[in-house]
Amino acid sequence: MRKIIRPTYPREFTVGLLILIFALVFLLSSQVFDVHWDELLEGTNVYYGMLLVAFAVVVMVVIIWEEFFFPVKIKPSVDGVVFRNHTNKLHIQLLIYCIIPAVFVFVYAQFKVNDVRFFIWAAICTLLPVLVKLISGLKNYNDFLKLTSDTIEYKNNKKEGVLALKDIQRLTLIRDERKVLHKIEVSTRGKSLIIDLDEMELDAFLNAIDEFITVNYKDFVAQHVS
Question: Which DSSP string do the residues of 195-210 spell out, in sequence order?
Fold first, then answer.
């Protein structure tokens, strides 16, 4: 069973915040359409378009702000743990992302819009999730770090390998200025290599990795702040 190390927000908080975001965006989204306030007050089908735009923004927020629906989990192995990019999460994110361009295409086809404002909104909602989350997830789709009682196995875009604990002389935990773990230097007989955790889409696991190594590999561990 996977162990949750960072749960999602409480359901009441999540629903309440998403409703608040939806309501605020709904009120602001009138600027996307070529319509005057007096027409809005009199009633118009633009309200349906505004609802759709607000929904697209909520979808964008759900993708970017993963704590809403995507808890961070560790996958146990036979004698250790595996830290890796959540492939199922990424599949779900890609699927719901498709809603965003579909909504804006439909709105553009069905409603009279202000072209400049419409394309600004559309660009933000369609590009921001890609730039912030999806590209990074796809780039590091196969990356992982596996820690067991016998080996350290890792893979990222640049390198991969399996290191036997019996060959390791020292593990140096390299931290950034915030004292957060972001690299591991592994020293073996006459060699050393760096495992770049900060390049492997493992940010959510850094504290759990730090704790696991400190507890289970304490005979090898040295500390270092970059």
Answer: E-GGGTT-GGGHHHHH
SS3 helix, strand, coil % of the chain, rounded to 5?
A: 50, 25, 25
- The CATH number that applies at residue 191 is 2.30.29
What is the DSSP secondary-structure string of 52-103?
HHHHHHHHHHHHH-GGGT--EEEEE-SSEEEEE--HHHHHHHHHHHTHHHHH
Residues in the chain: 226
Q: 221 and 174 in one domain?
A: yes
The percentage of residues in the chain with a pLDDT greater than 90, rounded to a whole number, is 31
Give residue-wise pLDDT tens across range 25-83.
998 998 898 876 665 555 567 888 899 999 999 999 999 888 888 887 787 777 788 88
